[in-house]
Known about the structure:
It is built from one helix and 40 strands. The N and C termini lie far apart (about 80 Å). The model is unreliable at about 1-15, about 405-410, about 410-435 and about 450-460 (pLDDT under 50).
Amino acid sequence: MHPLSHVTLAALLVLSAIIIYPQQLAYPPIGTSPTSVSSPGTNALVLALPAERSVALYEVGTGSLWRIGLGFQAEGVVASGDRSIAYSRIQQKAAVIDLRSRTALKELEMRVEAAWPYNQGFVVHDGTRLIVLGPENEIVRSVRIGYAGSPWSGSAFGNSFWFVGEDLTTLYVLNIVSGEVKQVYKHNDKITSVLALSENRVAISSKGYIGIIGADGSRKDLKLPYSVSELTRLFPAKAGRMVFVDEIHKVVGIIGEDLVEYRVVEELAGLITSPAPSKLYVIDPSASKLYLFDLTFEPEIREVRFSVTSKSTVRVEAAVVDADRDVESGYPHVVVDDGKGSRIVVPMRAVSGDRYSADVDLSSFNGKLSLRVVVRDEEGHIVESKAYEVTVDEGEIRTATALTVTATANTSPTQGAAGVQQFLLLSVELLFFLILMGALVLFALRARRTGRGRSRRRKP
């Protein structure tokens, strides 16, 4: 064995961080209140402005806004890719809008009670029928059937459109291609929200309940942190999970078969839309405020092991947990830096489960080197271990320092504030505990002294 062979083990205490503290953004420069909002992507909002007889497209990042005039007062709007449908229940009119050219492509004389996007167009309900609008804005399917009467009672994925029937408890699925409607499941209470997870699975919510229903009628109940209200809405999240918004209890959270996280938030009044999995826009017209909720997880580096396996090789092993399953290609990797501008990146190979390994050859280096494990996900979260230091002389490892520091993550200011808040809460709890223990000790000492005094008085 090489004389410098050793193993350094670092237990990294960086836990998954989920951001449920909203970021306030610039409010759209509009003079009237929107009645509906939808998002075709992470940096855009489509707003229905009935008082202006228009729809507005707002770019969140730049603050740019374009108005698209309509021949009616649209109260509702839904975006799907590069298109949007705006509609008026009262005037029984609708318009399909091209968001790229920012023009109305086609106006329709039709009653629209609710509309939902699917991958090639829109599904609408006119009060008696489900109508499928295709890629050319044509009616490709019409099925006479009732629905629950709420835009939250339907959701599409692929060629499946899931919806709740008129009795508010029965779940159906429409095959968009064939037009076949199938009854899948009957709940024991009113279903208040539906979210399609795939063509064969759907999530539902009702008072005190969130669960997953299969196309075969199977049911998977999810463990709730509290009894959710009947006004709990579901939105898509990463890794097959769901974002839930409880409008009565003012709670925003994320839930799946493997975890649940939630926070009570005050900034929950107004219109809600999801631009991407695990993200929400909340627009409050009464206060002229716009918020972004980012409920994505950072990757975790839970354990790192560095082993000198030969005179010029260090084996790096790491346990990396990717809760959102969105780590970028090429990560995790090991970064070797000589501090003089020369560095190499060594990809780590998957060994099993969440464990990765890499053999790092240092034979081409001379001098003091630092090695660290780096992980980056699609959201731009970067987590890295602290430096492990070695000294190489003529391609041979001479000294290596033990790693005694934990990994660090590049966190946003909102996460830092959350960490401070958690620290303060823990400090208060610890102070209360110490005061309580001190009081108990004083009480015990006083009781003991009182007992001794009584014993002395009994003596003749």
